Amino acid sequence: MKKTLLILLIVITANAAFAQQASVKQLNIYQDSLKKLGLKMINEPIELERKNANYAFIKTLVSALKINNSFLFKFDSLKTISILNSPDNKFRIFSWYVMHDDGSYRFYGSIQMNTGGPLVLHGLEDYSPLQTNPEDSVVNNRKWFGAQYYKIIPVYAQKPYYVLLGWKGNTVESTKKVIEVLSFVDNKPQFGLPVFDGNSKTRRRVVFEYTRTVSMLLRYVPEQNLIVFDHLVPPDKKMKDRPQTFGPDLSYDGYKLQNGHWQFVSNLDMKNIPDGKETQFNDPKKSKELDKQALPPEKIQQ
């Protein structure tokens, strides 16, 4: 009896290992296809071709994620999109963009839950053009304020949530960055939460807009539970209503976490803030595989 059980255990283990190897092999094949489509999404000179590559990319990604244990596959050679795991490993976010010929962007993404079983995937639909007051809205994944994320900050408050830092290409004149809030209500994603206090009002998300000719610092300092960012100002007082002209003035503001809320603080002394490693978001335009004629998006600093 013991010998039979041992043989059965060996067979089951071998079958599981074989199935796992087969899954990894299949995921690697999908990853190769996604890499090729991702390069087309970025580099194709014709907008329609970029969009077609994107639609094929979405279908291929969904097919890949349907494979058993796909959550464990890192897609680490896929550099044209952002893939972020939450620090508690409950989910991961895929986010990316397609640039239009007029210099604007449309964002795409999905949230994959770590179920340990069947795929649970929440598609993200960019609703930005129709959001008139994005800092005041609470929306679901079908009315997402699209962005390409580069940082997830978990907040273990009475109602746990996650802060997302993201880059949001805007127009030929300006760029945006966003501090977003993600929470889950009845196991479904919700974006926006009134947790950013001060600086004239409470915000559900924070949106920055500035001229496309400059870069903006927006990063998290974990040692101080602080989100720090450039203070943006117009080049002239007459342009105070034209955020597309704004730029950094070499001073810094921030949001500091206190009792589950983020309190606005101004004129931060950067001497007291650890430099950290100002790593950049993976810039798909800088890959050696990409067309040198492609126009790079702004460098994204964490």
Automatic annotation (TrEMBL):
Signal as UniProt keyword: yes
Position of the signal peptide: 1-19
Name of this protein: Uncharacterized protein
Organism superkingdom: Bacteria
Keyword entries, A-Z: Signal
Compositional bias of kind Basic and acidic residues: 273-292
Biological source species: Mucilaginibacter mali
Residue segments, region Disordered: 273-302
